[in-house]
Amino acid sequence: MSRNWAFLSSCFAVAVHLLYLEAVPISMDKTKIKPQEEKVQDPPPSVDTGLHYDRYLREVIDFLEKDPHFREKLHNTDMEDIKQGKLANELDFVGHHIRTKLDELKRQEVNRLRTLIKAKQDVEGGNDMVVDHQALLKQFEYLNHMNPHTFVVDDLDRLIKSATNDLENFDKDRHEEFKKYEMMKEHDRQEHLRTLDDEGRKKEEEHYEEMKKKHADHPKVNHPGSENQLKEVWEEGDGLDPEDFDPKTFFNLHDTNGDGFFDEQELEALFTKELEKIYDPTNEEDDMVEMEEERLRMREHVMNEVDSNKDRLVSLEEFLVATKKKEFLEPDSWETLEQNQAYTDEEMREFEEHLVRQEQDLNQKAAELQKQKEELERQQEQLNAQKVELQQAVEHMERLKIQNVEAPPEVHIEGNAVPDQQVHDNVLAPGHQALHQDPPQDYHEELPKSPDLPPAHNDLPPVHEAVPEALHDLP
What we know:
By secondary structure, the chain is an all-alpha fold. The chain has a two-stranded antiparallel ribbon. Helix 1 (3-17) packs antiparallel against helix 2 (54-65), helix 1 (3-17) packs across helix 7 and helix 8 packs antiparallel against helix 14.
């Protein structure tokens, strides 16, 4: 495989390598390992690999690798031409089925970015704001946002340049993160000491100094990339006689993917033996985060010494040239992390001030949230009270409705008595008008005839007819 393709592949190899930073590499005999067993597996989607677009980058390169024309041009294109975007023009000659798949990958990536933008707007409280996706997509320089549906030459050019630039800054960002980690660790230690009494603080300080001394007590660490360091790998890792050390054979043994280059991951694997002298995950005094920072320092040092064209790859030619230098045969001693504090006193002071401001901001936000909570609780109490009043009003209306539909009570009249005017629910007008109203339906039925009266008297008109006539005759 050409150096050019190795360069493109290395754009995402470093990102994928981040998945394994927390694991302690295991030494093994490289001569007994089949190349296919060293294949890097795709990381799970939920893992942060450093580049937020590494999956998109990896998939694009995988599909381009399947096109014979593109691979052939890649073999014959100069490295600088690739960086300047000349290789991207060959995209026009890639097979239709590959172009179709690249179009689909780009649409998926644009949709992913739009989803991220929308989620960010929601978190920042802009639910009612109109989102200008086209404007916001400008911040993602690794694709052409003006054409969200088609993967074109400009997309490949942007992707190569962005990945190269981002990975060049990757180590710098990692160093900054490690510095913050170390300062926070020291901050937490000092905070813990403040919670102790004088005797407890003295014991804790003594224990801290004891752990530092124990960590520093380790075998000599060889200079990374030196003859002594590589011979130790040759002997202990490869199981070969150090007297038979041959740089070219060593290179081929540890070029695990057989592409003719040492990438950053393959280089870092060479330092495992040295790191095992300093760090043991079972020891209290050894910090595995510090071990990975030490590995990064070693790899950076070798890259700076050996990678002459700064393409983040070490060719066999570059490696053989380096083995003839004086630094390879007579290296200086290597200073480990415990001999080089990651931060200065001034940086620590600024970090402490930043934490104080951060805590003040959090306390202020907490107070504002507490006020909002109390206001919401007060509003909830008012709503509950209104709910109770409304429920009571509804129950009252229900009772009135039930009372209005009840039947009037039955009226029982004895003898010739005139029924009470209040037996009806209707309001009666004053005066004689009540007498002109119709009597109850059962009035005739309940008025008995007197058996002692002569038969002629039984033909008298009913009381409700006679009484009005008598009243009419009154003066």
